[in-house]
Specification:
Radius of gyration: 18 Å
Largest sheet: 5 strands, parallel
Distance between the termini: 41 Å
Strand content: 5-15%
Strand order of the largest sheet: 1-2-3-4-7
């Protein structure tokens, strides 16, 4: 696995090394911003779709994106990659934070309550919900992503939510919400037992 590349040049070098060792390569980029023309590009100025296509053409088994962007801003990146790579296996591993068009990466999220930049030590109140992770997973799956995960900020309940949204039942599903058995279970949407034992 070669991940979190910001430059196509460094990703190409890593792919060569992986191939030299006879291993299949999963190659993912980390996109911080759009260029002056509003294009999603690597830091060496290559359109993200073109960068992924170049890696796939050079032998990468899976290409895609990880880190920096949360579920709210990663879908547009996957859409751009899919345009240029219609028949390539795709990967998507967002961070677990609520990014927006105005603040597309977790590096530049503002904590509105404290009126300051949240990264790196103030991200805790800015986690995405399980619902957001599930919605992202379904959208990404519809775009052809088959290599899933969550990058920075991940915890087991996000990984479980991804699996469950794809129709899987990992062993950890037994710790999912059991609303009718929990304290306050008659309250719609109670998640009291999300992380603990079933009461």
């Amino acid at each position: 696995i070669g991940e979190t590349f910001r430059y196509l040049g460094e990703a190409k070098i890593a792919l060569e090394v992986i191939k030299a060792h006879g291993k299949p390569a999963v190659m993912t980029f980390c996109l911080h911003r759009k260029d002056d023309n509003g294009q999603l590009t690597t830091l060496d100025g290559v359109n993200i779709g073109d960068a992924c296509k170049e890696l796939a053409d050079a032998g990468a088994l899976v290409v895609g994106v990880n880190c920096a962007r949360g579920p709210g801003t990663m879908i547009e990146v996957i859409e751009e990659i899919r345009k240029k790579c219609p028949n390539v296996h795709l990967a998507a591993l967002p961070v677990a934070y609520r990014t927006t068009e105005e603040e597309p990466t977790f590096y530049n999220i503002t904590d509105k309550g404290l009126n300051q930049q949240a990264y790196p030590d103030g991200l805790d109140p800015l986690f995405v919900s399980i619902t957001e992770i599930k919605e992202f997973t379904k959208k990404a799956y519809d775009l052809g992503v088959r290599y899933f995960g969550v990058c920075c900020g991940n915890t087991g309940h996000y990984t479980r939510a991804m699996a469950e949204s794809l129709g899987r039942s990992p062993p950890a599903s037994r710790y999912a919400r059991y609303v009718s058995n929990s304290v306050g279970g008659e309250m719609k949407g109670s998640t009291y037992c999300e992380y603990g034992r079933i009461l």
